[in-house]
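Issue 218. Parser rejects a valid record. Input:
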Amino acid sequence: MGKRQHQKDKMYLTYTEWTTLYGGKRSGTAVEEDTTFKRLPFDHCCLCLQPFDQAYCDGDGNIFELQAIIDFIKKYKINPVTGKKIDVKGLVKLNFFKNANDDYHCPVLFKPFTKNSHIVAIKTSGNVYCYEAVEQLNIKGKNWKDLINDTAFTRSDIITIQDPNNLAKFNISTFHHVKNNLRVETEEEIAMKKDPHARLKSVSAETKDILQELEREYKAPEVKENKKEVADKFNAAHYSTGMVAASFTSTAMVPETKHEAAIICEDEVKYERVKKKGGISLQYLCMIRIFTLG
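Output the parser choked on:
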């Protein structure tokens, strides 16, 4: 910063100096926080987005409800999160443990699982632990047996359920079935399509009575079929109806691609077939009454 009156080096920090040289607010071109991030809790199914009862996971640690994932795989044959092909046999059943407060926790260190916990599962046994217990008692001690039932496993059998440093896998907006709107209809939704009364569960009693009375008294109107007259060998004209040309030149008409013979009026056909002369006899009956005035 200068001290002279007419030099460019001012006694204060200019806007350009503050933003480019000495920190300050970053420009709008900087990487901004992803506003579309919607986190799924670790105890929720990645498919139905509801808390799970029977938890199964894939090799990436994505957890699914058993019945939901079976129905989805039967219909689409793909992983609902990644979009890759998957088989039901490749899923691993998870065994979560709960404490006295009915919260999921580590059965070894008894630490409750939170959204910031590092949670892992053993593929061969399905038991779920916090990563700290597996790291201290298995990895560092080179004890490759499950901490609950001594089931043997390898390092590659450790599946990461939740890593607080990598939460991108819990972003709902990146799930394949969410982006492509893939879903399996429930039994209630199928019943609603077949039976319209299934939609009337929340209506009032008065509305139900009105609908029942309407069903008893309603009569569908008779549908009259308009039979199209077809030309035969008697009334067929030697020229067409002109509908092909009319539909070709007018966008308001239904397109026609077949020429049809015009139909001659019935009276014209009838008089053309009269070959003999006919006579008409007219009889006039006159009655004369003479009224005399007496």
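Fixed in the parser; the record now loads. The first strand starts at residue 55 and ends at 57.
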